[in-house]
Amino acid sequence: MKNFFRSIFVVTMAALLVASASIPSEAARRAARSRAYDGMWSVVIYTAYGNCPRALRYSLRIYDNRVYSEDQSFQAYGAAAPSGAIRVTVAQGSQSASGVGRLSGNSGRGWWRTSTGECSGQWTAERRAANY
Amino acid sequence: MPFTAAEDAASSIPGIPDARFWADSEKDFNKALPPQPGPWLILSSGGADGAFGAGLLTGLTAAGKRPDYAVVTGVSTGALMAPFAFAGPHYVEALRKEYTNVSAADIFEAGKTGESFVDSWPLRDLIAREITPGLLTDIATEYRNGRRLFVVSTDLDAERCVVWNLGAIAAHGGDGALKLFRSVLLASASVPGGFPPVMVDVEANGTHFQEMHVDGGVCGQFFVAPAALMASTSDYRLPATQLYIVVNSGLQPDFKVIDRFAPPILTQSVGMAVKVDTRLMLDRAYVVAKRSGVEFNVATIPASFNAPSKGPFDPDYMGALFQTGYEQGRSATPFSTQPPPYPRGPALLPSHIEKTGAN
């Protein structure tokens, strides 16, 4: 269990906008599209390298393109672009990890690594609920 | 909806009145037992260490040393494996998969729910995949043949333990029975505070309400019979021919430097309490078996097992523990006939210090 909570520091995803073209004249559609990934996401972190748990699952929320943790035991921050490109940092105490990847529809995948390079691997995500 | 203690005491599952009984009801327990004595299999709590019991049962099957248990009881992880242990040797592959092909991501999702530190929806979905209508049909058949499958959960509202008669539930049939069967297994394995409780729909005297159920381990790490019948002051004799207890947890002290953080402090404390409770319960079961003229057998994780774990439900750790259990099951002596001895650590005080003032 100790490793489990340590690994909470460790990873996930979030969002970074990759600059993408938009259509200025369709403000409403643009707004809807830009928040296309809002909702509650379940993210599974798979360790490929390093002495970290093989697979862990986290709940993250994306709201207005921003990534949040609703569990105060760890912090998550980042953003998702309308294109689906995403980058996230998850931290607890002095430990942190970052992930990059892409969302598409109700799923996503990418890579992650700890800030120290101790562990790395892949992540997958599924949206379990739209925003509320 | 609010309800009273009297209503909860009289509550039952709508449409399946024989689905359960209070674990402290000697009358209901005796009524639920099989018509004929036979070997009883008792499966304990233990979380990921249930891989030991799964391996042991698989090894016993491979060695042809697994009888048709007249009674199978399970608590927590023991409840999760009990249906497969009960339904017959052809379910060993499902048992192996359940304990070697899963990781923490298949059991829980990190993120507080308001009721718990993590969410157990992945375990709920796993149970739904593994507990199939076909499995319930096989369990119902065995129930009609006179065998019994019991698992325990804790009714937190009542502060009482509940024994679920899963064979009777399976025999009832239908979607409602399947849903209840799955919910009971989840409840029995829902460590309070760690996992959310499971709300169970019940009725009493025409009033419908929900009871809050949590891990059966709150009531004890395994279940043989109501506590009053297990008491040293009782003359109750177990109607069994042999008692086989599978302890899915290590009983040795496990040294680790604990972080100053609430979850690891709680985890280590509960883990230690479970070991103490398990040893006391084994001692009690041994006395009752002797009193009843019933052969006593217990299998525990060997003290020599020391595979490292990289966190909860580590597949490598569970695989190694499954293999340890499997080899023990296939061995000439898979069970001990006495509870394991208490560990004797080195004395803290130097031997040259003498007591003063004695006598």
Q: What is Rg of chain A? A: 15 Å
DSSP strand count of chain A = 8
Provide mean pLDDT of chain A, rounded. 78
What is the element string of chain A, with H for helices and E for strands? HHEEEEEEEE
Portion in strands of chain B: 15-25%
Provide a count of the helices of chain B: 12
Percent of residues of chain B in helical segments?
Answer: 25-40%
Number of helices of chain A: 2
Percent of residues of chain A in helical segments?
Answer: 10-25%
- Category from helices, strands and their pairing of chain B: alpha/beta
Unreliable residue stretches of chain B: none
Strand content of chain A: over 45%
The protein's oligomeric status is heterodimer
The shape of chain B, in one word, is globular
Main structural class of chain A = mainly beta
Largest sheet of chain B: 9 strands, mixed
Q: What is the rounded Rg of chain B?
A: 20 Å
Mean pLDDT of chain B: 94
Topology of chain B as a string of helices (H) and strands (E): HEHEHEHHEEHHEEHHEEHEHEH
Textual characterization of the structure:
The complex is a heterodimer of chains A (132) and B (359). Chain A is built from two helices and eight strands. Chain A has helices at 2-10, 27-34; strands spanning 39-49, 55-63, 66-68, 75-80, 85-92, 95-104, 107-114, 120-129. In chain A, strands 3-2-1-8-7-6-5-4 form an eight-stranded antiparallel sheet. In chain A, β5 (85-92) and β6 (95-104) form a beta hairpin. Chain A starts with a helix and ends with a strand. The model of chain A is unreliable at 1-24 (pLDDT under 50). Chain B has 359 residues and is of the alpha/beta class. Helices cover 39% and strands 16% of the residues of chain B. Chain B contains twelve helices and eleven strands. In chain B, α3 (50-62) packs parallel to α12 (315-330), α6 (121-130) packs across α9 and α8 runs antiparallel to α9. Chain B is globular and about 65 Å long. The A-B interface holds A 1-5, 7-8, 42, 44-45, 51-59, 69-74 and B 103-106, 108-112, 119, 122, 256, 258-259, 261, 263-264, 267, 309-312, 314-316.
